[in-house]
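Why predict the complex rather than its parts? Because the way molecules touch one another can change local conformation, and only a joint prediction can capture that. The input here totals 821 residues.
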Amino acid sequence: MTVLGKDRGKELETIYAGVGELLERHQGDPDSRAFNAFLLASKMATEGIVAAMDSGVPVVSYNLGGIPEILHALGDNENEVFPFSMEKVVALQSLVGDYKYNIEAIEIAEAQGMSSDVCSADRATLGNLAKKFLPEITCSVFVTAPCDSQTVLAESIKEETGEDVFLVDIPHLHGEREIKHVAEQLKDEIKFLEEKTGKKLNWDRLKEICEESNRMIDQALTWLDLRKTVPCPQTSKMLSSMYILLQDGSGTKGGTWVASEFAADAKERVMAGKSAAPNGERVRAIWFGSPTWYNTGLYDWMEKDLGMVIPVDMFSYVVPEMYVDTSNTETMLHDLARKQIYMPMGRHFTGLPDYFIDDLVRAARDYKADCALIAGHISCKHAWGMVGLLKEALREADIPALVFEFDLFDPRVAPVETLKQEFTRFADDIVLPRIRK
Amino acid sequence: MDKAEILSIFQQVVEKPFNAYLERWVSGGGKICGYYCTLIPGEIFTAAGMVPYRMRGAGSEDTGLADVHMSSNVCTFVRHTVNLALEREMDFLSGIVCMNGCDQARRAYDVLKQKTKVPFHAFLSVPRASEERLLPWYKEELESLIEGLEQEFSVKIGPEDLREAISLHNSVRRKLIKLNELRKGLNPPISGSEALTVTVAAHLMPLNDFDELAGELLKATAGEEVPRNYRARFIVTGGELDEPEFLKAIEDQGGLVVYEDTCFGARFYEELVSGEGDPFTKIAERYFYRVPCARMFNSFSARYDNVEQIKRDYNADGLIAQRMKQCIINAGHLYNFTRRSRANGMPTLVLDREYLAGGYGQVKTRVQAFIENIESKSKKGAVR
Ligand code: SF4
Ligand code: SF4
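Output of the joint prediction:
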């Protein structure tokens, strides 16, 4: 099939066809309003990639842990530069395309010598690069969050493409000193980008973009507030897409619109007294760690068969510190630096174990959760490295937790059936008896 | 003392976490500060009157305690080291200083800080790129380490103390460089496993003692040639490697290891700290700008070029790239490395391994095959 009038190679075409089919299937379904908004955004994102290829604008790659506001503000007009996160293609393939292409890409990277210890998002990206269907990039900007795998990817992209990469070093702690340090680095990043792309940063446009970003944060916070309702009004599988929105859609009207649809849908459902669990809500769980993007059907199964809902997860953990004060250039850079540090996943996996633990314990309290699901993506070594401290803290906070091992893109590590068994045992043997007491 | 006697002393130093030299130091009221990565300057501890001690797992037999805290999804170097500390085998330390070397090592710090009784802890956030714009941050981190040590141990670390420390550390480096130079020869006086034993010992004992013994070793080996009947000369590259037995397994198969491009190897002793100018700045610059390790971004080409140069200087036939299983940082390094080295026709063997695994059955088989491969391609003939 063609995308925007041309053949694009099976990988992008599969994503495009997949999202089209899903949209068709769910159109008009009142229970699918938020999901449809996400699907529409995915369709637009895919079109964005091919449009950038056709238009020949400079493509700047940035990593999974990054944010796009500065990239959007290069040039005096919209779309003079295309901010492109290569891992987004892996996520889209998994969520709306065909995960088998990710497996194929992972196998290519491994055949080229990449160890399976490295995050599957990054292995699949390297495989996709080798397949040569991604847009050619002008340069890259990478942040050192959330993990070592990301720095590995940055170095490998540089080696593979021969294009320069600017690195923003995210320090260990997340205080004011660190924010200022990142803000200073953003100034150097801007110089780098201006030189590589030939486009000057337009500060008026950056202000508008940050204001747009703030509107997205408004919507996200409203949405999260609504999700605190008992019973949880909206399906769990929406949650992790907030990360894609933040990482990819921040500062764009489309991104804000999707977030507002998430919030509007949640509000509608709260007003109507609807529950995410069709047979009644029995267990409220906080999911911390990466999502099972290789099979989002798991979340539907949890709601339907276990009555287990997830009001908030790590990927959707938006906080007010993500607002950007647009008073002047300094406040913008300061707050963009803070937003960068406070991005979910990076905020949790870099720095002290308490950054992860405190958010989780707070979420359990604020969202009236009965338990925690600690999703141990196999490559998240930072999370595995503190699993004992985490368990201790949760015991102290009296939050029962299930720690399970899986891979967010690769079903071969833990098939969904295995997870279902673990979740069922956890709910039946640990959580429900406690609730009944 | 002859060579064998000196080597046997170093051998005893590296076998267990605690050794006779440290025992003597501690019983004389001396303090020891443990640290975890080659980007943490040992000179600072020396200037504080302490022995810098590179934490490692030798002597550990089990990872059970560490597994409870870190799971088995973390590299075995980290787990064995943490396990020893949790078993209180490192209670002789007065301080532990770690950094964000990798995600796994920084979690080791979190566990060590909360679960051991060592009184002083400090953590450095070291930038991931050796770029000038990031040097001031690194210096600030070192400054706060110095302040922390001064407060905790009621010492003053002034420029003169740092200068003296530089002088001692450089003296050690010079000796190790000299010793390593001997390995360029056709029949070097020391093998790879012996050389590694010496450099590892330098991380684990009072440096004055080490410096003296290393000086004696140089005298004992001067002009000596040992016919070794090896079939190929190797550089070993990668991250953590403090197991001389691993190199011995390679050498038992007919390989001769002539250089360790590793954290316990050349990254420790290559490149002196400049004796000119402000000593603090010079220490910071030496560590920040030295040939970068795999955690440093934008550094791959420098690392690769360095290995090519060493290969020429040491007349090596190939490269053994070793990595601890689960180690992500070195997975990335080896991915880029092997792709480029193979494209350039540099014979490269990648070995994923576990720390303290012993046996090395698989290593031996693969090294054998690698040597045969090199021999079959070599025009020079098989045995030298
Ligand atoms: S899922 Fe874990 S390993 Fe993968 S990019 Fe995120 S933090 Fe890194
Ligand atoms: S071997 Fe790798 S994972 Fe282990 S401590 Fe060293 S850099 Fe970290």
